[in-house]
Amino acid sequence: MAFESFAEAQSFLLWGAFILALIMGAVVNKTNFCTMGAVSDMVNMGDFGRFRAWVLAIAVAMLGVVVFEFFGAVDADGAFPPYRGSNFIWAENLIGGILFGIGMTLASGCGQKTLIRIGGGNIKSIVVLLIIAVIAYFMTNPFPGSDKTLYSVLFYPWMNPLSVNLANGQDLGSLVAGPGADITARLIIGGILALGLLYFVFKSRDFRGSFDNILGGLVVGLAVFGAWWVSSNAIVNLGGDETYTLQAFASDWAFLADSPEGKPASTAALAAQSYTFINPMGQSLGYTASGFSSAYLTFGVMALLGVIVGSFLWAIVSKGFRIEWFANLRDFVNHVIGAVLMGFGGVLAMGCTIGQGITGISTLALGSFIAFGGIVLGSALTMKVQYYKLVYEDEATFVKALITSLVDFKLLPKGLRKLEAI
Q1: pLDDT tens, residue order, the chain (422 aa)
Q2: Residues near 82 by beta carbon (within 8 Å), at least 6 away in sequence
Q3: Burial 100-136 (b: 16+ CB within 10 A, else e)
Q4: Domain ranges of the chain
Q5: Are 221 and 57 contacting, i.e. CB atoms less than 8 angstroms apart?
Q6: Which residues contact 135 (CB under 8 A, 6 or more apart)?
Q7: Contact, 396 vs 387, CB < 8 A?
């Protein structure tokens, strides 16, 4: 959609992000759509219902992106963050994903679930949000009076050499077909993958009979796709054929704008994008620290607010709003450690269970699939270790529980088992 001014196009982007996130927040609260819960159900009960809802969201978002991109209505190539970038940071995707998976298990939910819980009255999730926000902010922004970030100090020296340059990009279409044919390849590959995922989802009779799981997966997937469409179509038209994306307009602000007023602090955050919730927590801290300056108001900040408001509205309508605090000191410590791991892991992996697990995968980026696998593995291992320690108490040291859990997942040979299977 073309608008006559930057302000109008930016307003379309921000309010589009908020409204879609509000709907998603209300539906996620209503249906109990939960990615950590999906892993928990699989590991502890063998129930794939909520995991299928997650996969449904992936399939819907993927199908929407590859079809609309083929017809020029979505542009995920220059996205923020750069899912399809040529710099293939596989180690960061994997290690960050594992850290995030561990963290979300300890903190009782992923980034999106943290926001849903806040809307429902969970005060301990506010603590989780604040910790993640501080870490995410300083992972990407320098400390005061310094040019160093948490990432540059702790991770860059040893992780950057592990990255691989893929000249044509890391999405499956570019890897298979290369420039010129990548859009068609994405349509074919993404279409086949999405249809395969839909078959996996709906072949389950139990899932087909679960209204909430179908609704949750469908709405989350449509919201992710809808955000891609909104952010790809916020266009400034200065007359005739002179059109600019928000990012391009802001980059040439001095030549295109009438005055410095209204210029955003970051051009990167104006690129095509969809929902992710860890980096936006850091953006929200920056927005607050700026005195709520409109220059720091981004898609991510509006998305975060939208999910909280949507969840709050459903909690009020359904009379489910409940104030909740930490049960004990151990509960507090677990949530703090989980928040720290989610902050580091979410930025390293370049997204969370939504940001990489749905939004990133919808672009067919190889790194997103790796991050998704890391998140599921980290969460599942944590749950297994916790369960073994609960059942065997003093006999199950952390090392024994971890080795046994790895054996359970067939990642180590059976001969290394330390505890009887449960």
Answers
A1: 889 999 999 999 999 999 999 999 999 999 999 999 999 999 989 999 999 999 999 999 999 999 999 999 999 999 999 999 999 999 999 999 999 999 999 999 999 999 999 999 999 999 999 999 999 999 999 999 999 999 999 999 999 999 999 988 999 999 999 887 889 999 999 999 999 999 999 999 999 999 999 999 999 999 999 999 999 999 999 887 889 999 999 999 988 988 888 899 999 999 999 999 999 999 999 999 999 999 999 999 999 999 999 999 999 999 999 999 999 999 999 999 999 999 999 999 999 999 999 999 999 999 999 999 999 999 999 999 999 988 888 788 889 999 999 999 999 999 999 888 87
A2: none
A3: bbbbbbbbbbbbbbbbbbbbbbbebbebbbebbbbbb
A4: 2-416
A5: yes
A6: 150, 282, 339, 340, 343, 344, 347
A7: no
Rounded Cα distance between 25 and 376, Å, is: 22
pTM flag (> 0.70): yes
Distance separating alpha carbons of residues 170 and 59, to the nearest angstrom: 19
Read off the tokens for 210: 């679960």
d(CA 275, CA 227): 7
